[in-house]
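Run Bifunctional ligase/repressor BirA through structure prediction, thanks.
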Amino acid sequence: MAITVKKTKHKILDMLLNHSDTHLSGQKICDVLGCSRTAVWKHIKELESEGFKIEAIQKRGYRLLSTPKELSEARILVGLKTKELGQHLIYFDSIGSTQKEAQHLAEDGAPHGTLVITSHQTTGRGRLGRIWSMPKGKGIAMSLILRPELSINRIPQLTLIAAVAVVKAITDVTGIQTDIKWPNDILVKGKKMVGILTEMQTEGTNVKAVIIGMGMNINADKNDFPEEIRSIATSLKTLTGKSHDMSLIVQTILFYFEDLYMRYLDEGFSVIKWMWESHAVSIGKRINARLFNGKVLTGLAKGIDEEGALLLEDDQGSIHKIYSADIEIK
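Sure, done. The structure for Bifunctional ligase/repressor BirA is below.
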């Protein structure tokens, strides 16, 4: 586990990224950061061990040639364009569940914006306790701790904000257009690529913390998925035939989430609602909604209301507000 603030290693990487077209001498780095050349060399070697390709030429210095596609704690932090989200980063090479770890950290007072992240989650879960399968090193599991001053009934809206942020980020980084399936799935061509799980900690009627978990299939090959889910799951690599920069995807999601979250706090849910509905795959289609009590409602998905509840019009013309259900598009 690595609990991260701005380290010397990250400052060196920042300098290399900003001077990628030229060499930086070890002495120049030392002068700027106030460290020894031996320390610089050690940090360069550590970055190389994390997958950064760095050219070192005697009397000229260091030049960054390429960054890893794999998830990198240093790469996430360097260039992260948020004020709070992800600035306190807790990175694991491997963990059972980022969501469980974030729950514990939130109970212990972790600050707003704390991010728990890994590319190898062994006991991940989604809604209703379902297992989330993620091949080692080829996906992203992350849990974001928020400290919102919101009423309990507004917390489900945060799931929808997260979904819009993910859709925008994936399009920005890859050009791929994705769909949202209410309430928490991101689909491409009908197959699931991202799942979102929102949980909260309360004290009476007060919300103490919200933990938004995201599981994302990024660089998995088709055969990496268990056979029983290959027909319903996909990844960016499966779709495009190439690997993608997972750290950049995380940076971009956090950037969009923070922007949308602040707009939501300032302007209300209406600014998010139309964006969510513009990507919703079920709007205008007939669906089955299986409720927790086993009852199944069938009808036309009309949209979402100002609380984020799904509006379903049944065959008798009655409108049902659905706050939690499994949705099947007919």
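The longest strand covers residues 191-203.
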